[in-house]
Protein: ABC-transporter ATP-binding protein system
Organism: Nitratireductor indicus C115
Amino acid sequence: MAGLSIQNVTKTFGTAKALDDVSIEVADGEFLAVLGPSGCGKTTLLRMIAGFETVSGGKIDIGGREVSTPQMNISPEKRRVGIVFQNYALWPHMSVEENIGYSLKVAGVSKAEREARVTAALELVNMQQYGDRRPANLSGGQRQRVALARCLVAEPRLVLFDEPLANLDVHLRASMEDEFADFHKRTGTTILYITHDQAEAMALADRIAVMDHGRLMQLATPRELYHEPANEMVASFISQGMVLPADVETAEKGGECKVTVLGQELVVRCRKGEKPRKNARICCRASQIEAVKGKGAGFDGTITRAVYRGGSARVEFEPEAAPNLGLHFDQPDPVSFEAGQRTRLRITSGWLIPAGEGA
Ligand SMILES: Nc1ncnc2c1ncn2[C@@H]1O[C@H](COP(=O)(O)OP(=O)(O)OP(=O)(O)O)[C@@H](O)[C@H]1O
């Protein structure tokens, strides 16, 4: 296996920039997800790593070897990069074994070696007993495992997954997530996994690269993205974080500072070296908002919606001081909030979004 180095890569189509100065280092054996909304440049990035698309600026190395620069593009078949697509692209008239061994046959690998490698690939994806089946007689998850085995049989240095679970139903997705995680643990394959599904990225990846409008917004562990988003885009994109205006009142001490949000003073976590400033933003989560009894610290407003979800309700709230700022939180059973009801809330904690980074 090999690491992947994407250095200051830019891609333009005519005058439009699909990727803008993106740098990502994937360590040997790492599982890195690229996550972002539609049109953020995920597919373009994958196509450039695979060699189907040239770079307009910057360079890409695989296993320490330069494969893409604006002047040079090593062809896809020489990169030893495996790709698993969302539509499995299996040959319907071939058995599972024939599908997996096809590329070896075309490459002139001997029958004995082919059989050994196909068996080993089937074992890697736990499909030993399905070698004789046709793809039509497999479930969606099994087909995806065959597609993975077909990619692994060529002994790639790096495997790219292009939204591999997008066509599967919710239950199958969960079990395939477990299988991919287990596969990664067993084999130590270097994986770059493209998805727009953050739950999937969080469940699987060591680190996640969040992209928006062709730019890298943050590259961090799932926990860091959730607890310490680098900018407003990441804060609101990951788990529907709420971004609220704040004034920073005190300098950082022990990783915390005092802020005023909607007239309420509170202590939030922050980066080292933060100083008092106006017009800052904090990110807070539904679990960091609670109802206040009486007139304690907090802010008044109106409940606009309460949707019961079994065990708790998602409650939406409009603060009096900033009606355009929709907040939401969960009220556990017994649910008492209703639309139209006036109440007082408080924010219990949050994260001060660093100044001037990305979006
Ligand atoms: N061949 C092309 N010619 C012109 N523009 C392109 C081309 N390929 C991609 N783009 C543009 O580049 C941007 C990034 O596209 P890309 O397909 O990489 O996004 P994505 O994140 O994969 O989106 P999705 O999740 O919808 O597949 C988009 O604005 C897209 O319209």
